[in-house]
Design goal:
Radius of gyration of chain A: 17 Å
Helix content of chain A: over 70%
Number of strands of chain A: 0
Strand content of chain A: under 5%
Order of helices and strands of chain A: HHHHHHHHH
CATH superfamily of one domain in chain A: Tetracycline Repressor, domain 2
CATH architecture of one domain in chain A: Orthogonal Bundle
CATH topology of one domain in chain A: Tetracycline Repressor, domain 2
Oligomer: homodimer
CATH class of one domain in chain A: Mainly Alpha
Distance between the termini of chain A: 53 Å
Chain lengths: 183, 183
DNA sequence: TTCTATCAATCTATCAGTAGGTAGATATAT
DNA sequence: ATATATCTACCTACTGATAGATTGATAGAA
């Protein structure tokens, strides 16, 4: 196994654990155990917990944005663009019962190392930017302020729906929640 | 100072700390330091962390429901009922930059002691019940399914808006997010 | 009144377990 | 031989939790 592979496995494992239990609910030892190495080896690849958390968030954002696809290729229908984002949230709930990483980190934001805070903000800014960009290119005639409002409302609804569905232990709760729609 | 007072101060302090940093981001010693006692004294009033967390959540739910008021006296307008709940979320953000306690606990739900999980669920069920009850008594003609959907959507939007506004460090983000509205 | 017994509440001191993190030995592969 | 990656072993600080001493107030007996 190459170092890249190990780094990748650590990131994947940490991602899943943080999305389930939260940043402060996860330790180097637990991650190491799950990967099958010693915690010192995790420190070799990621010197501090903040560095690991930031790397997890950076990778998550990249994967998420890749799944959304280039904004130029976003659906022309505003609702379809919203649905594409919402479907990613739903998939993480249905497939693994996990939060959105940055929804989790956002809740814990006041107790996170600065580099993790920065990456969490970056996720929200990129995601909101993608939605606004999709709206601009689409067929929805609206002001920039209206576009921003709908982007924020879409993301807030998705994140909140994940929390409610996980807490109530019922995926149908997620499906019963409608996104705000363009007027 | 009576024992009741001390219990009350511990609950208040723990409430604020959990709503800022999360359940796993708070320790008995930090709570004790903030109150001005030793951690053993906190254990005297609340034997375990789970017991303390559950008591904090129970008190939070009671306070929240009291602020909403009896459902019989809820606004007859569905949107006004939604706004009453949303205003409570906004107040905790504006006045103390705090999450809704159960939004925070809901994010951490997979890493919480069972008694805290139960109280967190209770909060959501009571709050959703209040919204549905208000809709039933109000002037909005809709099916039970539609009422439930709007109640879930309202709560999800409020919780998500708190996360986004706190993460982006901008209260205007909260204010830019519109609640879903009755059709 | 004064002494004494009792009780709740807090304290000091400590426990075992775990946290993030580090030093240095060891293995592996080029 | 060197560089990379993992390991063992350990550190200090902190975690939730407990035992037992101490405090202070109260109530009844002298």
């Amino acid at each position: 196994m190459t170092a890249q592979d190990m780094k990748h496995r650590i990131l994947e494992t940490a991602d899943a654990m943080i999305r389930s239990r939260g940043y402060n609910g996860v330790s180097f030892r637990e991650i190491a155990d799950a990967v099958g190495v010693k915690s010192a080896s995790v420190h070799y690849h990621f010197p501090t917990k903040g560095a690991l958390g930031a790397a997890v968030a950076r990778r998550y954002t990249a994967t998420f944005m890749a799944a959304l696809g280039p904004v130029e290729e976003a659906p022309k229908s505003a609702t379809a663009a919203q649905d594409r984002l919402h479907a990613l949230a739903r998939a993480s709930l249905v497939e693994e019962n996990l939060m959105c990483l940055c929804g989790m980190l956002g809740a814990e934001i006041a107790d996170l190392p600065p580099e993790v805070v920065a990456e969490t903000r970056q996720f929200f800014e990129e995601t909101i930017g993608w939605l606004i960009g999709a709206f601009e290119q689409g067929d929805w005639a609206a002001s920039p302020a209206a576009r921003r409002k709908l982007a924020l409302g879409t993301l807030a609804t998705s994140e909140g729906a994940l929390i409610l569905a996980r807490t109530l232990g019922d995926i149908s709760v997620f499906d019963d929640i409608d996104l705000p729609r363009p007027q």
